[in-house]
Design brief:
Blueprint (H helix, E strand, L loop, with lengths): L1 H35 L7 H8 L3 H12 L3 H15 L5 H4 L11
């Protein structure tokens, strides 16, 4: 039962980090597009629906073929900080395990 609870916490952390990374990517990309004066193709609602769930692919494409952009840095930093704000679960630290004793 403790395994499922810890697994649920890990999934919660992962989903939260994924969504916050996507939101950070989308907001930073919208600001960057307006800053450089590029023509806006999609409305913010459509771009949010495309950018938030698919931000890892966008980051990969940017880093692979374009280079580092502000939205890539923001998305990766927000994802790392979101994961780092939770305490490390006990099943990773192995603090709840008793030391193995040899049989006499």
């Amino acid at each position: 039962m403790a395994f499922l609870r810890n697994l649920g916490k890990a999934v919660k952390i992962g989903v939260t980090a994924y969504i916050t990374g996507g939101i950070a990517y989308w907001i930073t990309a919208e600001i960057f597009i307006r800053y450089i004066g590029k023509e806006i193709t999609f409305s913010p609602l459509v771009s949010a629906l495309l950018a938030i769930p698919l931000w890892p692919l966008n980051v990969y494409g940017d880093l692979r073929w374009i280079g580092t952009l502000p939205q890539d840095v923001a998305a990766l930093l927000v994802t790392i900080f979101t994961i780092a704000r939770w305490p490390v679960p006990k099943f990773i630290l192995n603090t709840h395990l008793k030391p193995i004793q040899a049989n006499p």
